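Per your request, structure below.
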């Protein structure tokens, strides 16, 4: 089973009409590393975020907001997982 990518980031790249290989090349990274970042935005440091914003022609804050949204979803999913664990009596 392959890991799902973060759809809001994928949508932003696709809305700009860009291919993932092109974006990776412009960022100076391997396409497989871009895929890893699309699955886990925590792998994206500030330099990556700045480059991606420049390549996509968006404000850095837009990329930052995507990363925050990813963090919130991860936190929400972790909390949901903890709530489903039965506590010993």
């Amino acid at each position: 089973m392959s890991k799902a990518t973060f759809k809001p980031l994928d949508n932003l790249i696709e809305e700009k009409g860009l291919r993932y290989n092109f974006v990776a090349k412009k960022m100076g990274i391997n396409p497989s590393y871009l895929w890893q970042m699309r699955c886990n935005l925590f792998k994206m440091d500030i330099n990556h975020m700045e480059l991606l914003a420049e390549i996509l022609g968006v404000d850095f804050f837009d990329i930052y907001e995507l990363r925050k949204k990813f963090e919130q979803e991860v936190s929400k999913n972790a909390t949901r997982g903890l709530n489903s664990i039965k506590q010993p009596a």
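Helices lie at 7-15, 20-27, 31-39, 46-56, 60-83.

Regards,
D.
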